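Technical note accompanying the year-one report. For the benefit of new consortium partners, we illustrate the data format agreed upon in the data management plan: each record pairs a sequence with a structure-token string. No post-processing was applied to the example shown here.
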Amino acid sequence: MLLIRRTPADHATGHAPGLSTGHPPGLSTGHPPGLPPGRPVGLPAGRRRTPPRSRRAVAGLAVALLAALPLVGCGSRLPDRDFGGAAGGGTAAPPSAAPVTVGIITSLSSPLGVDAFSGPLYGAQAYFRALDASGGLDGHQIRVITCDDSGDGGANQACVHRLVDQDHVVALVAGSELDYAGAAYVSAQHVPDIGGEPISTAYDQYPDLYQIYGSSEPRDGSALGWGGTEYQTTEVYQYFRQKLGLRRATVVAYDQADSARYAAELTQGLRAEGYQVQSETVDFALPNFAAVAAGMKAQGTQLLMDAMDTRGNIGLCQAMAADGVTVAAKVTNVQNWSEQVRQDYADVPGCRDVLWATADSRNYDDVQYPAVAAFRAAMQRYYPQRAALMSQWELEGWAAAQWFTDAARSCGGQVERSCVNAFMERPQPYDADGLLIPTGFTVRPAPSGPQRACLDVARWEDSAVIDGVHGGWVTQVPDMDTNCFEVTALPFRP
């Protein structure tokens, strides 16, 4: 599984009690049974959303590691059954109501493997299938058309033109594309792209593209960020400094430009929060992890972060175990917040038991929250074979589908791209029934001074028992919406 990182992201804080959802009394919401409609939420007075954390290195690192792999199967297509839905789309609409058509583009058959980018696809489809089973979108079934771009830019453009020009989708939802080459065309056609994972920097540049974490950037189609400058905020590093008392960190990267660039961002953020940072670089083909482990032991490393893939992480953990090196926290990102760590780290349980992850979304193991419980129930009903692949990206795909549904419902009887875009551009933040830290797309000036940022934090614990299963992600904060920090926004030019 590829390590794709999103450094600190657009966060918002606070829920506005009693704020109306905007649904007329007695109108069926069409949400899955037991799940209330996604509510818009307000920000407490005096607070503002922070700028998006840097994701430039995320895309670069992914592409760089992809280039180092043999391109077996590039451009291939999997049968529609591998997307978990019926060929050509979702459940057929009843004759009395035309279906609402949406598209999902996924780099499913990329050389990185079918599990690298598939999470949002399955989460979104589970939501739409549950929605259809409960009556649909105000009586309209959702027709889901999927397209696998194989992680290839040209194939991505072909997917975009097929979905936009031939299938006339109302929106794209829950995309996870390695190379979003068709983004400019999607934006030019004013097709709302809702809840995509920001693997590509397109979500930092183009209007009508709405990544799952929100953005306060101009997104006017010209430069990335604010006039070519982007920012990372430091809440992740501050959390581990304040809550765990950590002060000494090691950052490990490959001897490859994009890996090194991402590691430099990690180092910049750590040092801004007062850490003593040791940087280690290894050869991509023949990494000497024994030397890294020795350096960590000499420094007394407490916090470990990296810009490597899973192969590199396991190799480093093996070297640490051989040299008797332990850390208080090995911090990974939202894409690796999944059940797959159970198998990935099976041979290095010492590393797995200090594995921490951070995100802007609710832990998929926190089934005490009704929205999480609804997500888990739908996944079990429609995709039981994916229990061992459960992931935070699947939950975020579900949230993306819900975001589209609430936007479409605001259109009344006629769902059109323009009214969906208008909903997405509202000043009220959105939280998908508490699955997301409240966020939105209100454009703000480039950040200056302290920023308030919140995050969810979980740790893998082998001793945990969740739904009768041993081992799982255990949330480490009382509430992600109140786990907030005053942090620095660090500028850089990608």
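Partners are asked to follow this layout when depositing records. Residues 1-60, 69-95 have pLDDT under 50 and may be disordered.
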